[in-house]
Amino acid sequence: MSKIAFFLIDAGPKKTQVLKAIRDVFQLGYADIQEGVSASTPLVVRQLFDRANPDFPESLLGLLLRLNQLGATVATYQLLDHQCYDSEVKYYEITADRLRNAIATNRQSLAEQRFLSSLEGTD
């Protein structure tokens, strides 16, 4: 998985809590969030798995679960590394379950890479 595009479609009945939760994860101002919603543009487009911020996938998962509890409607789409978001293109939606599976797969892959690297040094 490469990049994600995150959209807030409708904040729902608990708008203040939703905006605060999004702001806490993405460090966006309220005006930026409201502008993205009104323009139907992604609030954030960024790498999902990034060495500079390895905790981001778990933070995004927590956000998706929290926003669901608050009654907000969001969409998170997968973009390939070379893609820019285009509203005319259909993208693969990343749900909380799919994200949870991607995180587990990434962890397993990293563990296997570490194991294989440790074997290379021993002959």
Instruction: Report the sheet-strand fraction.
Output: 15-25%
Terminus-to-terminus distance: 34 Å
Order of helices and strands: EHHEHEEH
Uncertain spans, ≥5 residues at pLDDT below 50?
none
Q: Using only CA atoms, what is the Rg?
A: 17 Å
- The outline comes out as elongated
Please list the strands of the largest sheet in the order they lie side by side.
Answer: 2-1-3-4
What's the gist of this structure?
The chain is α+β, with helices and mostly antiparallel strands and 123 residues long. It is built from 4 helices and 4 strands, in the order βααβαββα. The protein has a 4-stranded antiparallel sheet.
Protein model, in words:
With 123 residues, the protein is an alpha+beta fold. It has a single domain, classed as Ribosomal protein L7/L12, C-terminal domain/Adaptor protein ClpS (Ribosomal Protein L30, Chain: A). Helix content is 50%, strand content 17%. The protein contains four helices and four strands, in the order E-H-H-E-H-E-E-H. Strands 2-1-3-4 form a four-stranded antiparallel beta sheet. Helix 1 (15-26) runs antiparallel to helix 3 (56-70) and helix 3 (56-70) runs antiparallel to helix 4. The protein is elongated, with a radius of gyration of 17 Å. The protein starts with a strand and ends with a helix.
List the defining traits of the structure above:
123 residues; alpha+beta; Ribosomal Protein L30, Chain: A; four-stranded antiparallel sheet; elongated
Topology:
Blueprint: E1 3-10, H1 15-26, H2 30-39, E2 44-47, H3 56-70, E3 73-79, E4 92-93, H4 96-120
Antiparallel strand pairs: 1-2, 1-3, 3-4
